[in-house]
Amino acid sequence: MTTRTPTLSGDVLAAIGGTPLIHLRRASDLTGCTILGKAEFLNPGLSVKDRAALSIVTDAERRGSIRPGGTIVEGTAGNTGIGLALVASVRGYRTVIVIPETQSAEKKETLRLAGARLVEVPAVPFSNPDNYVHVARRLAERLAATEPAGAFFANQFDNVANRQAHVDTTGPELFAATEGRIDGFVCAAGTGGTLAGTAQALRALKPGITVALADPEGSALHAYYTTGTLKAEGSSITEGIGQGRVTANLEGFRPDHSFRIPDTEALDIVFGLMREEGLSLGGSSGINVAGAIRLARVLGHSHTIATILCDGAARYASKLFNPAFLTERGLPVPAWLTETAGDLP
Ligand code: PMP
């Protein structure tokens, strides 16, 4: 075992980023490439979204858009809210999170424990004025007028301080950790901040690098980047990824390749990584690793490809790892998931 020297680094926000790159054995063996996953589930809020949350709040402070004791309002599938609540606690703000009620109970509970006030709304498309993002924006406007210290709408989809977090940190970290040997980068897009920001940094550091989108079913981006028209088909049980429009964070970005990944392919990878490589991950990580395998097949063997391991399995115990939930959706249930101590001889 190698030791990493612990450093005295200040408050918990100093522990955001600088995550290790994990060699993914099965994906690498399968393709003859070196496939690496950036362990974003090791951030203090346990997801990649801590980076965006810290960047959005720091940017708002710099612009004077948020006052001490003010309220941060956001519409989020969960992880951004957890990151924002964490940053808000350290920096002296309050957090109100508007979340679609379909999101996992675990994420909602984590948000409450992190100190956020939750507003649950029905899951409706962005075109509907009752979509969680629009509800959050209107709530921020109301609170800006009524809260003594005002309110700030974090607006992760269209606030490019989100993407900038990855231009400044994720991209350069991937380049440095691979000693410049990175040939390809692939991930899914929710806001698009991780994909577009990391791609921007890597393309500047390593001209000629190949960047790909891994898109779940139900997202309109794969059709957009392959045919020019936003068109969604199918659906996915993954959370936090897939997009029906070109967000401000995706503006000016184009992937070199785009892959549409079905849930069956992603879940097989999530379950395999858990049982064979000790990695306990959420669904979007499965989409991402599936994308890395597809990109490896395009580039050919002996390339180095990195992707993002966005968050951990614990956030989805009642869904991805629940046999009844999987069966209800016609998805295969791995045998080990139903094994109990009672099965032991
Ligand atoms: N995976 C998970 C689990 C997420 O919560 C998110 C953010 N919504 C993403 C991936 C996508 O990240 P981004 O918003 O940077 O596109």
TrEMBL record:
Quote the PROSITE patterns the UniProt record gives. Answer: CYS_SYNTHASE
Keywords assigned by UniProt, alphabetized: Amino-acid biosynthesis, Pyridoxal phosphate, Transferase, Transit peptide
- InterPro entries attached here? Cys_Synth/Cystath_Beta-Synth (IPR050214), P-phosphate_BS (IPR001216), TrpB-like_PALP (IPR001926), TrpB-like_PALP_sf (IPR036052)
- What GO terms describe the biological role, i.e. biological process, of this protein? cysteine biosynthetic process from serine
One Gene Ontology molecular-function label: transferase activity, transferring alkyl or aryl (other than methyl) groups
**SUPFAM superfamilies referenced in this protein's UniProt entry, alphabetically:** Tryptophan synthase beta subunit-like PLP-dependent enzymes (SSF53686)
- State which gene encodes it: cysK
The answer to whether keyword Mitochondrion applies is no
Q: Which cofactor does it need?
A: pyridoxal 5'-phosphate
Native organism is Methylobacterium bullatum
Alphabetized Gene3D superfamilies for the sequence = 3.40.50.1100
Q: From the Swiss-Prot or TrEMBL record, give the protein name.
A: Cysteine synthase
According to its UniProt record, in which pathway does this protein act?
Amino-acid biosynthesis
Domain of life, per UniProt, equals: Bacteria
Q: Where is the Tryptophan synthase beta chain-like PALP domain?
A: 14-311
Tell whether Transferase is among the UniProt keywords. Answer: yes
